Amino acid sequence: MKTKTFILTLLLMLLFTATTLAAKPTITADQQYFDINTGLYVLNGNVYIEVKNRVITADQAKVNMGSLEVWGNGNITVKQDDIFFTADSVYVYGAQDRAIVEGNVHFTRTNLNVIANRVDYNWRDKNAQFTDNVQIQQNGNSWSADTVKYNIITDTFL
């Protein structure tokens, strides 16, 4: 019984270690330190964060390595494949595969440009909810709306 418990515990530890290592981000910045009071890494200047082929750049950011949350501001870019956002700030909910991008949001993709004040992007269902002063240019057509939902996979507005 003790042997089975030991082996099960060992397997669980290996599983959690592999999962943690798979999601480990690459982080660089001109200046960085760990704030023991908040438990956050504080990054300043030329911030670069890469997780699961998603890249975030910023002037400043704070990162919680446990939850993979990122709070960034100043010259934000969020990129993955042909998806590209620029904005003033970003908050990434790493565990939920979700990002809130705010302030002068500009989303670009082949044959599509969207400008808005805010976008809530979900990496799981590939939906982007643009809100507040939304301006859209797609395949030579332009229109505006208060809010629109766009699916990355189908390249359509819902």
CATH architecture call: Sandwich
Largest sheet: 11 strands, antiparallel
Number of helices: 1
Shape category: elongated
* CATH homologous superfamily identity: Lipopolysaccharide (LPS) transport protein A like domain
Question: And the CATH topology?
Answer: lipopolysaccharide transport protein A fold
**Percent in strands:** over 45%
Number of domains: 1
Distance between the termini: 55 Å
Note poorly predicted spans.
Answer: 2-21
- What structural category characterises the helix and strand content? mainly beta
Portion of residues in helices?
A: 10-25%
Global mean pLDDT: 85
The level 1 CATH classification is Mainly Beta
What does this structure look like?
It is a single chain. By secondary structure, the protein is mainly β. The protein has one domain: Sandwich (lipopolysaccharide transport protein A fold). It has 1 helix and 11 strands; from the N terminus they run αβββββββββββ. It has one helix at 2-22; strands spanning 26-28, 31-35, 40-51, 54-64, 69-80, 83-93, 98-109, 112-122, 127-138, 141-151, 156-157. Strands 1, 2, 3, 4, 5, 6, 7, 8, 9, 10 and 11 form an 11-stranded antiparallel β-sheet that branches. The longest helix is centred in the N-terminal third of the chain and has 21 residues, at 2-22.
